[in-house]
Fold this protein.
Amino acid sequence: MPRSPHGTSRERGVPGRLFVDSGAWLALVSARDQHHAEADTAFRTALAQRAALFTTNLILAEVHRLLLFRAGPRAAASALVRFESSDRLTIVFATEAHHRAAHVWLDRLGDQEISYTDAVSFAVMAATRCAAALSFDRDFEIAGFPLWRVG
């Protein structure tokens, strides 16, 4: 399992490849989110330092659904267009191999409340060699991936 080289979830610099979870996207687009300021700073720092951002279509589906019911159809559709038009973001579409690897993650972490979407995210992180995740929950750390924070 991936582990932070220094045993900490606080990375000093921006990793070359950074996986973005749904909570980070939601915090970025919602000024009322408790993590908005942190997400805004993190994205600005990552982009300024030219980090490669990765997410999955399943993560975007979560974001779209939550925005649809919190902010309406126009906001949800607009967010998808912004994600898809970004030249700094790679959207990885879940494959059969990711699906199989997700089952391995779910079996390995069977005593934890890990969603299928997160398990696919772990599979994608491993396949794309993402060094850390930009997320505001602990699921990635439970799986052995460090969370990246500014500073």
